[in-house]
Design a protein that fits this description.
This protein has helices at residues 3-22, 26-46, 52-68, 91-103. By secondary structure, it is an all-alpha fold. It has one domain (3-103).
Length: 105
């Protein structure tokens, strides 16, 4: 596994965990991730890596490239350490619980 892939896997895992713990729906989590990509592009432009339009366009293209990659998601048993206080309308949490329940049937 490449260093980038290993770092990306770790960050994605943490992001999804944080999204679940914060009560975000999957739709909201996707919006937050897109905002983070755009904020990174703005920061890059401010650091002199290009003008704002170029950096935003580059980030958008990279976001699309990443989205096109095949990935595999595994919900581990440790996912059951999910917060009980989470609202019932949290789609990420509900999905994790549903997968855990199905795993034991």
């Amino acid at each position: 596994m490449s260093s980038l892939r290993a770092k990306a896997s770790e960050l994605v895992e943490r992001f999804v965990g944080e999204a679940i713990a914060s009560g975000l729906t999957w739709d909201e989590a996707v919006v937050v991730f897109g905002l983070a990509a755009k904020a990174s592009a703005i920061s890059a432009a401010e650091a002199g890596d290009g003008d704002l339009a170029e950096c935003v366009a580059h980030a958008h293209a990279r976001f699309q490239e990443a989205f096109a990659q095949e990935i595999h998601v595994v919900v581990a048993d440790s996912a059951m350490a999910l917060p009980d206080a989470a609202s019932g309308d949290n789609a990420l949490l509900a999905t994790a619980r549903r997968r855990q329940t199905q795993k034991h049937h």
